[in-house]
Amino acid sequence: AGGEVSLDLAPLAAHVWVRSPVLKVAPMVVSVTPGHGSVVQLESAAAWVDVKVSFDTVMDSSSLCASNGEGAMLFDGVHLSCRCSNINSCSEIIMSVDANLRDGFHHIEVLDTATDANGMRLHVPFKSSFLVDRKAGTISNPNKFDVPGLICGNFTQLCHNATGANWFRAQNTGGNWSEWSAYQEVSDWISIPGQPVLLQYHAASSASFVVGDCLSQEDTPCFASYHPTMNLRGSWHEWDEGKQVVMKKIDHFTWATTLDFSKFEKAKFAPFDGWEVNYGSHPASKLLYGLPSFDPQNSSFDVPPYVSGSEAVRNWMAERNLWTKHQSVASGAAFAQEIWLSHECTAQAPTCEPVENAKWECHGKDIWTAADQQWCREVGTVDCLEYAENNLESDMSDCGGCSCCKKKVNTVPTGDKQTCCILFNDLLLNYTVTDDLGQCTREGSTTTTTTSVGLRTCFGTEISLEAARTAGAAADAAAAMAAMARDGQLSLQDTLEWSRKRLTEAEDDYGDEQRMSSPQTWHEEVSYSIFIDRFANGDLTNDEANIPSYQKSELKDKQPWSVHTWRHGGDLQGVKGRLTYLRDLGVTTVVLSPIFLNSGGEYHGLCTSDMTRVDPNFGSPELLKELVQDAHTIGLRVVLDVQVNHACGNGAGYRGSASSEVDGVTQCVSMSEAVYWGMERGWPMPAGVGSPMSWGETLPEHLRHQNFFARCGSRKLNRPDGKDFLELPRINATAIQAGLIFTDIFEDGYFEFNTMDPVFQEVMTNMLKYWIAYADIDGYRIGSASHITADFSAYLSTHLRFYAAALGKDNFFVVGEVNQATTPFGGSHLGRVQGPEGPTFLPRKVQGALEELCGYYSELKVPTPGFLSSYPLQETFHVREISAGERDPYDLYEKLDIVQTVGYVRQTMTTQGDIFSSMAAAESQDMHRLLSKQGGQQAADLWRLNVLMAWSFTWYGIPDLYNGIEMGFNGMCYRTRAERQALKNKMVEQGIKSSAADSILDGCDYTVLGSDVDKGYARQDMFSGGPMRLGSAVPGVNAQAGFETKLMGANGPHWCEDPLLDRSNKAYTLARALIRMRRSCQALRSALDLGAKTLQNEHLPQLAYWKLHDGREEFDADQPRAMLVVLNVASEPADDSTKFAMPPLQTPYSEGQAFVDLLDPSRLAVVFSGSNGSYLLVPASLSANHVAIYAPVETAKLDEGGQWMVCKGEWNLPPLNSEICNAGSDLFIMQGLIGLWIAIPVLVLLCNSRTSVYLSVVKEATPPKCSTNAGNRREPGHVLCAAIEHTIPERGVKVSAGGLGKVLDQMLREHPQGTLSLVHPMFGDVNYGELDEFTRLTIVVDGKDQQIIVYTMQSEFKGIKRVWYILSHDIFLERPKTSPYPPSMTKVRTLRYFSLWNQAVALLIAQLKPDIYHCMDYHAALAPLYLQGENQIPIILVLHNADYMGVIETDFISDRFWKTVASLRRLSLIFNLQISTLRKYCMFEGRFNMLKAGVTYIKETQKGYGICAVSENYAVELKRERTLFGGLPYLISL
After folding, report:
1. Which of 119, 457, 705, 713 has its CA 20 to 30 A from that of 414?
2. Residue 839: strand, helix, or coil
3. CB–CB of 1420/1412 below 8 Å?
4. Sequence-distant (≥ 6) Cβ neighbours of residue 892 within 8 angstroms
């Protein structure tokens, strides 16, 4: 009408108007059946399927369906017969095809040779495709994104269902996409349990088909996702990544969280750290559609523009009721802006989006009416614009001279606080914001596993010492509720305050000294677990300080009936002396077995009585601090093993009968279980649960609280339903768990704590915090963590790490001993502290603890509450069996029950904690030695130990070497009956009764007893002189085996000379090599391992597996992407050629790629391609080894100083030091030579003296000029003795640390008649009474003058004139009598102490002129160097403990001058001696040695006579084993 036409256009439709007459146009295809892109469901009964093509005009059928096979119609590229559907009008052509069409895409084509009835040809050819898919796979269901069953083949394959796909590529979520590969139904791919796999398919010219699958090790599905994690960041926390909200996965590709809002906030979704990948809102932009420029109306054509962007899409969808106001779409474009979230819980942006820094601009005319101006003043905000009258101030300067101004709003709407549910689909990028909170907790279409449950994070508590001290403070109310439990002198509140006060005391004691920071990651550490009592005896004086009564009796009788349970004398001093041994081995972390007081004197320390005291048999708190400081100085970290689940005390027990009856114990456990699962945190145990305890004599006051103990009784009496609780079916998991944590699970007398008590939790945690503050330790390994409640695990781990972070240790190490395979809810002790079904399936006590701890763990570097990890115990057990030949090597990968159990453990440690912080130990204190498993048949098979050790270094987690593994220890007393008889004969010759010898040897009979042999035998001594030196697969070490009737009478040799430390053996060499390979090769540290069977023989006795780079660490191009580990478990490995299938890699190694065995570079292998894929060929006739580790040859390099190779890359491998024990004196401690043997409580200072000229080296030094004194032998009338320990009977003064003090007491009573001058330092806490001032001495130390006041007193006793000279100086006065000797010689202040002491002794010798100088050990042995000419006097040197020679290792010394001044120059300044004097008299085996000064002086002035040892045996031993005393004519025995 009127030349106008109106019609509705369907989307993507077009209408064309043309003038008449219309020219003829070419024929076109207008429809096809089956439709293009359709999925055809074929009827099973049909024989044929009709394919139809319709045209817009009548066609010439002969051009389409030519009988000569040249027609224009084709199906799948083949000319088929066809026909017209209507013989009168051939506008539709039909082809009948066989209904048994293959699955896949089929193609219908019409060539451009087809003509219509008028002879006009098609303008272009036509092609259409449809899909036949009887399996209903991915391509035919493009809206289904999760594909269960995709992961198959025990995580080594992908089973595809994508009919029609031509190509595919894969990705483990968070990794990189593989290269495109041709589609096949089954392909090789290594999946990770609990980690989704993504697949992208290319089909029908499109690559938009993306699906995923996720499977846990137990074959239960988990949720697939495009990203491994998802976080929500926003303006509410100022975009701080550290405070981002961690979203949890609630369905496939769907992440959720809930947040509170009271106004509009901006946000973005971010899956990773940083902003490189993030999702926000696509900004709006106008899309203008106009007429083409040649149309004369284009300039006047004006329509409302369409707008693109996220908000426009949301509005468009919402207007058509396709979306609600709660839904929208995000964008991953680099220019994406923030999305809006608000208290309205919708996806809508605010009606007026605020504009930052909006400026005022002119509104309206310059001249306004009064009414206009009134409107401007009053109207406020209209349509997102704010109006105001021009105030002519600077803020409105942009408004110019206008009387009315306007600007865009810059504030956001606010409202009542509302909790909103936010969901984000990370595949489709859709998101939803709703007030329906149920959507954030809904379960998806699959079973939720621990892999899919997020951990709540909170706005954290800022890390500070003040916050860390009060963190986790138990409420006083809780203490009040349990006040009735007070039995001892301290109330609960007293105990709390006591434990808190100790922390500040420890902090103050440590002072401003620099602490050792935590490593960035523990994943690259290598640890060595020391069993202290059996590792090294460094202090003989404490050997009997705390031993059980039966040991005292047996030592007295010299009948070691129970030698395997004796305390053998190993101590912290011994560990100190071997720190450089451990560093030389290559370890980076030292783990000490329990060191705290065990009142029963048990050698293993596994049941602590008092966590505040170091067991005196092991040392002292001061010694622990020194040990840690020395370790830190040479780059070692120190971790303590502790037991927090039970305590022991002499005489402690139960007062009631309930704990000794089955019904009473079972009921107590059941009620405790109910409290744990059903009562809120903080509520105490109901009255009447458990039997009251009596405390005995030795449990400390701070533990004497009834509510600190479970008090149920022995595990043997816990019999729910009349059964041993450990034999209950797994459906009774809570009852099994209760039996593990509420009964006395180990032994009678091991009383389990009630670890869910909040007061106990704080007190115990504070006791452990104390040692972090006091000694600067680096971590704890919590033993028997399966036997504490999970709320305590979380509390302990969180607060220990939070406190350590406040001290500067932001990655403090806390792991727990939990056997995940046998411990119900074992995963709840780790990391995220969650049960198998997430945080809702946890005991109420644990839920409450998590709520309380959230603010603390959220601030930590590892923001989870539980232990960082546990141990891979199941894998260890199985590989030990493989190494011993007790099971098929490939059971680890193929035996279903093992695969499932190991998989469950690995998945738990991966999803709950940090699997890479677990500790992979081939041997441990809780196991018998591997080589004892077959009763002696394998005792000499060192290769088995090497195989096991190699496995632990090529597995995930931290490799952990155990006490003596590198020395081939086998725990065997004997291997054969003949050896047994020979050993018995030797024991009888020592005076051991035949019956006692038989008892010992029977107890060690592995052939008869097997695993029932007491583990005390497996914990054999690692030091010469130990009373139980058992067998080794290393012949030289095995030759030292034997039993003793006593503890060490004299110190053993230095570790460089100890025959029990044979560093030439193959196990030691392999350990050093493996440590360096693991630290340099990223793939060896991954958790991706793939069993590698040989292609030609699947039953070779070997365990082989590929280790693949897992992408966890940034990939270095020089690093291997795959490494092959081959462990041969045949006694004689075959040298046949072997083929190993190559692993599926995103970028496979090409044919011809060479691989080299890092342990034996002469062994090369090469990649070949065959009909069944690629394989690695190890040629025949190569040297056959039990351990081989292959890496691509271009990624390996020779390790400088070693006979092996390591991986290339930027790794800080310290240089190998092969000459550590062979350095000459000119090297002067250049490379941190030996462990310190420093002053400890049995030693007296060696003699010192000096000339009367007090000149420092920097002025005019005075080297001694020794000459031999001629003269006749005479009895001395005046003897001067200098010692730090001393006794003054008349004044009641006694400063003694052990045996040397007793010798001094004897001298005071039995010395020959005459004058005995005794020189001692004055102690600040000793009351000496009134003394006379004798003289004042001026001495130069470290370039500065120092003054000493000498006091004196004297007495007579049986003809002995005893004269004491007591030296007063600040450096002497600061020592307490309880710790008389100065600390480690790693302290410059200690060196100054000895300089002052030796010079003072020398001055008194010069002034008093005695006939002879009695020098005890090394402490005052420098004194003769300060004497010249007529002042030189004879000296006797009495050796009480010659191992402590005053050796200084400069690697340990913390002094800024060591970095800038040559070491000898620095020492010469401190000791006021010339460098030439130090070289001649004080250098021995490359070390500064104070004892050498006395020995050399005696050699030069007395022809070597005058050196005595405390016993004849010791004299013989020193002469034989100590090269320092070589060349002496005789060592006299006292």
Report:
1. 457
2. coil
3. no
4. 875, 878, 879, 882, 898, 899, 902, 1091, 1103
DSSP of 1008-1032: HHGGGS-HHHHS---STT-SEE--B
Q: Residue 817 CB: number of other CB atoms within 10 A?
A: 23
Sequence-ordered list of residues with C-beta below 8 angstroms from that of 7, at least 6 positions apart, any chain = 15
**DSSP per-residue letters across 427-460:** TT-EEEEES-GGGGT---SS---GGG------PP
Return the number of other C-beta atoms located less than 10 Å from residue 941's C-beta: 21
User: Region 1306-1312: what's the mean pLDDT?
Assistant: 87
- From the list 1172, 558, 547, 522, the residue with the least C-alpha distance to 869 is 522
User: In whole angstroms, what is the distance from residue 1474 CA to residue 1063 CA?
Assistant: 37
Rounded to the nearest integer, the mean pLDDT of the chain is 85
> 423 phi and psi, to 5 degrees?
-120, 145
Q: How many CA atoms lie within 13 A of 415 on its CB side?
A: 13
* CA–CA distance, 197 with 145 (Å, rounded to integer): 12
Q: What is the pLDDT, as a whole number, of residue 1260?
A: 30
SS3 1439: strand
Dihedral of CA atoms 1446, 1450, 1456, 1458 in degrees, nearest 10, equals 110
Residue 495: strand, helix, or coil: helix
Q: Where do we find the tokens 């993306």?
A: 210
* CA dihedral sign, ordered 250, 255, 257, 262: negative
Query: What tokens does 443 get?
Result: 């379960």
Q: How far apart are CA 687 and CA 682, in angstroms?
A: 15
| CB neighbours of residue 400 within 10 Å | 12
Q: Which amino acid is at 589?
A: T
- Other CB atoms within a 10 A radius of the CB of residue 67 amount to 8
Query: CA 715, CA 710: separation in Å to the nearest integer?
Result: 12
Encoding tokens for residue 1243? 């030693």
Q: How far is CA 860 from CA 5, 233, 520, 828, 888, in A?
A: 71, 18, 13, 19, 44
- Compute the distance between CA of residue 874 and CA of residue 820 in angstroms, rounded to an integer: 8
Of 1369, 1333, 1370, the C-alpha closest to 1353 is 1333
**Token couple for 939:** 């005792």
For residue 390, how many other CB atoms are within 10 A of its CB?
A: 18
400: left (phi over 0), alpha (psi -120 to 50) or beta: left
Sequence-distant (6+) residues with CB within 8 A of 553 are: none
Instruction: State how far the alpha carbon of 1167 is from the alpha carbons of 864, 1170, 1180, in Å.
Output: 44, 10, 15
Which tokens belong to 1272?
Answer: 């006749």
Phi-psi region of 1346 (alpha: psi -120 to 50; beta: other; left: phi over 0): beta
- Give CA 1075 to chain center in angstroms: 16
Distance CA 1177, CA 57 (A): 67
User: For residue range 1351-1366, what is the model confidence (pLDDT) as tens digits?
Assistant: 999 999 988 999 999 9
CA 794 from centre of chain: 16
Q: What are the tokens at 329?
A: 């779409």
pLDDT over 50 at 1233, yes or no:
no
Single-letter amino acid code for the residue at 949: M
Coil, strand or helix at 302: coil
Q: List Cβ neighbours of 413 (8 Å cut-off, separation of 6 or more).
A: 263, 264, 342, 350, 351
Query: For the segment 368-381, what is each residue's pLDDT rounded down to a tens digit?
Result: 788 888 889 898 88
**Ordered DSSP codes for 84-103:** ESSTT---EEEEEEES-PPS
Q: What spatial distance separates the first Cα and last Cα of the chain, rounded to whole Å? A: 137
Tell me if 1060 sits within 8 A of 863, measured CB to CB: no
Nearest partner of 766 among 620, 996, 611, judged by Cα = 611
Q: Are 1363 and 1407 in contact (CB under 8 A)?
A: no
What would the two tokens of residue 566 be?
């004796």
> What element of type H or E holds 407?
strand 404-408
Total residue count of the chain as it appears in this document? 1534
